[in-house]
Amino acid sequence: MAHIRRRIPPRHARLAAPPIDLSALRSLVGFSVRIAQLHVYDHFHRELWRRHHVHPGAYSALMIIQKNPGIRPGELAVALVVKRPNMTKLLDSLQRRGWIERQTPKHDGRGVSLMLTPAGSRKAERFASDAALMDKRATGGLSGSERADLLRLLDRLSARVSRI
Question: Could you confirm whether domain 55-134 is CATH 1.10.10.1100?
Fold first, then answer.
């Protein structure tokens, strides 16, 4: 789609705004990915917050910890492309909520590993089923094969760009 409609303040609702020509940007993958990401993320954030009072970063961290018990905070930060200080704040928040615990591995007294608590495991299960429904709703305009192609292409793009 090369054009979008400008938002018009209510007092000027009778005036039709001309479409904004985005064709110079729509031909750029980065721009198109970013706009799509903003719309999908906004939907996901609104719904997660409305249902669970949790944001996508917390959801993502819980899901990764669930699938990778004992993961180190630095590894989690790399996986989520988050700066370490921001990851520390996120983990502090999840620990305060009683959803994760930091453990010191027996083989390495200096390291920290992350585990879900029983409450965190229950939350992760509830979040996962809701997230699947939200994702299905957000991608409802795509066929199953289109959705699979999109995920595959995004993975390839992300892997390629992360190496340059």
Answer: no
User: Residue 58 CB: number of other CB atoms within 10 A?
Assistant: 21
Positive/negative CA dihedral, 66, 69, 73, 78: negative
Tell me: the pLDDT tens digits for 24-70?
998 899 999 999 999 988 988 888 888 888 888 999 999 999 999 99
The DSSP secondary structure of 6-41, one letter per residue, reads: PP--GGGTTSPPPPEE-HHHHT-HHHHHHHHHHHHH
For tokens 């997230």, name the residue: 131
